[in-house]
Structure formats: C-alpha cells, structure tokens
Amino acid sequence: MRDKVDTFQTARTPDAESSSPVREGLKVCVGASAGGHTNELLALLAHAEGWTFRPTVCVTTMDILRSTYAAFGRTHVISECNRTTPAAALKVVVQCLRIAWRERPDVLVTTGSMPLAILACFVKLFGGKVVWIESIAQVSQMSLSGRIVRLFADLCLVQREPLAENDKRVEFAGALL
Q1: pLDDT per residue over 15-29, tens digit each?
Q2: What is the pTM of this model?
Q3: Is there a contact between 30 and 45 (Cβ–Cβ < 8 Å)?
Q4: Sign of CA dihedral 99, 44, 158, 33
Q5: Domain total for the chain?
Q6: Domain span at 101
Q7: Listed range (21-25, 103-107, 161-165) with the worst mean pLDDT
Q8: Residue among 41, 50, 43, 51 nearest 75 (CA)
Q9: Cβ neighbours for 36, distance < 8 A, ≥ 6 positions apart
Q10: Is residue 124, in this structure, part of any structural domain at all?
Q11: What does the DSSP assignment read for 79-145?
C-alpha cells in the first residue's frame, strides 16, 4: 500500500526543482458532501496548484458550495442521502450514474460520505481510479461508506493511524486538518 501512496504523491507533487507544467489529459474529479467532508477536501485542494494533474470536475451535495468549487472546475451538485433514506439514495444513484457517464473521470478523489461512495462505484465501473480519504471524524472505525469503498478503491487513506493497523487495504498518511 505504501507504493500506492508514494505513486499518488509523485503524481500530484512535482519535484521542487522541476518546473514541469501541469499535464493535460488526465481528468481528475474531486468530491465531498457538505460540512466536515468539504472542509477536509478544501484543505487538500489548497495544495492543488502543486499537483501535476489538477481537478477539472467537482461534485458536492449543496448548491451553495458550487461557487467554492468553481475555481477548480465544472461543478455538479447531487442530493444528500444516507442508509436510512433509500428513496433519496435511489435519486443519488441516478445522479451519480449520469455524472460518471458524462464526465468519465480518470481519477476520483473524495473525502467521502454515502453520496460520494455511490459516485465512486460508478467511476470504478467505468474504468476510473478511486482515492478515498476517510474523514478525521472517524476515530474507532471507518464509516460504513469507507468500509465498502475500501474493497475496490485504488487508494484508501485514513487520518488516524489505528484505523490502518489491521487492514492491508488501508493506509495511514497523516491528517488533512
């Protein structure tokens, strides 16, 4: 798993001595639900200028955040849902399928929640890579969405070291905040 983290870091952080420009062609989608998930994603995106491939598509669950994400690329707003709202989840499935089909991102980087887990499923189904960053709020175990997405994510990061101790599919890489 450490190789995956190193590869991801290399792909997003050019050498300090290198003045290589941002490369074209890789479509990076970033997404988060409103609240703490968005705060964590925005902390990560604060360093996007140094990435080799910058986000060009964003997904959020609140229209009020559209302008916040607009600086990074085209922004899609999907509904919010959780495991106790199956009708809302069905609506999110349709929204995420539409976004994944139309955008066809090469990589999805998300700080999670159920709506973004649904998007991750479709991105993976259509051949994209998935980077899941579990919320720092998860102290004793990963969220249900994180536990599901870790099964197929190309890189699954947690922000609390104990969450990675007994799972080879999960890597501790420090905190975003």
Answers
A1: 334 444 445 679 999
A2: 0.84
A3: yes
A4: negative
A5: 1
A6: 26-46+53-172
A7: 21-25
A8: 41
A9: 135, 136, 137
A10: yes
A11: ----TT-HHHHHHHHHHHHHHHHHH--SEEEEEE-HHHHHHHHHHHHTT-EEEEE--TT--SS--HH
